[in-house]
Amino acid sequence: MITSLVLRRPDDWHLHLRDGAMLRAVLPWTARCFGRAIVMPNLRVPVSGSAEAMAYRDRIRAALPPSCSFQPLMACYLTDHTDPDALAAGHDAGVFIAAKLYPAHATTNSDHGVTDLALIRPVLARMERIAMPLLVHGEVTDPTVDIFDREAVFIDRVLAPLLADFPGLRVVFEHVTTGEAVAFVRAHAGTGRVAATVTAHHLLINRSSIFEGGIRPHLYCLPIAKRERHRLALVEAATSGEAAFFLGTDSAPHPITAKETACGCAGLFTAATAIELYAEAFDAAGRLDRLEAFASLNGPRFYGLEPNVERITLRRGPTLVPEAVTAEDGAVVRPFRAGSTLNWQFGDD
Ligand code: DOR
Ligand code: ZN
User: Fold this and answer.
1) Which CATH class is domain 4-348?
2) 149 assigned to active site
3) In angstroms, what is the span from residue 40 Cα to ligand 2's centroid?
4) Cα–Cα distance, 144 to 31 (Å, whole number)
5) SS3 content of the chain, % helix, strand, coil (to 5)
6) Kind and range of the H or E element at 163?
7) Closest ligand to 137 CA?
C-alpha cells in the first residue's frame, strides 16, 4: 500500500478566485499547494481587457501570503465585442495566457458572454494564428435541451464544427463531465491541440449525490454532475496518464447565503483540500502512480511551460476538511466535504 507520494508541485488550470474579501479568504488555500493557476475572468465586471487583467492580477498578488511564489495566470473573457488586435496584444505582452469562451447565460456571471460564435470568428482566426488557447465552457444554452444533455449536445452543435472551421485552434474543453466529452477529446488528442480539465468533484460525485437524502445545494455546479457511468469515464481518463487530461478544480466559492436559498448559485468550493480530493479519487482507482502526470506535468506541457521544480508530499493520514471559510466581510463559504475526514495529508516539502 502506498503511504506517501512525492509530486512535482501541481498547478490548477481552472480556478475561480473572485475579488475583494472573498479573494483574500480563498486564495491562501490554493496558494499553499499549487504553483500556478489560470484564474477565471468571470467577475461581476468581466475581465475582458489587458488593463483590467493586469489590475486583477495585481490584486491577486497583493492578497498572497508573504513570500509565496504562487503565480496567477490570466484568461481574457470573450464577449461579442472582443477586438482581435487587443486580444493578440495582451497575449503577446504576456498578460493573457488564454481566452475563455462563456456561451452567454451558460453559467455564473456569463451574461456578457458570446451570444453567437459567428460574431467572434475574427477573434478565433487570430487565436488560431498566434496559437493562443481557447478555453471553453462546453454547454449549450438552449433551454429546450435537458440540463444533463447540454455538454453532449454542445459537442455536436458547437465544438465539432468549431474545430473543423479552425483546424489549428488549440482548445481546452473545461471541466468535462461526460463519457462523450472524454471520447471527443481522445479522438482529437493526437493533434496535441485539444485537451480537457477534470475537476476533483466530478471524479467523486454523480448526479444522485446531489439528491442523497434530500437536495444538496453545495453539490450543485455547472456543468452538473452526470450519471455514474460518466463519472467512471472521467476517472478512467484522468487516471490514464494521457497528456490530454489535466487538473482544473473549477473551485468556485459562493457565500452560503447564495447556495442555501430558493434559487442557489452553481459552484463548488474545493480549493480548501483540492489535492487531497484528487488523491482520494486516484487512490480509489488504484492509480496514485499517475497523479503526478495529471496534476503536475500534462498541463504545463499543453501550455508550453516548464513543470514546477519544487515538490510536494502527500501522506496517507487524516485531513479534516474545514467546516467553513469565512471572509473578512463576514461571508461564509462551505467547502466541498466540509467537516469530513479525507485520507491524504498535504505536505509542503
Ligand atoms: O459551477 C460553476 N460555477 N460553473 C461555472 O461554470 C462557473 C462557476 C462560478 O463562477 O461560480
Ligand atoms: Zn469555472
Assistant:
1) alpha beta
2) no
3) 7
4) 40
5) 40, 20, 40
6) helix 160-165
7) 1
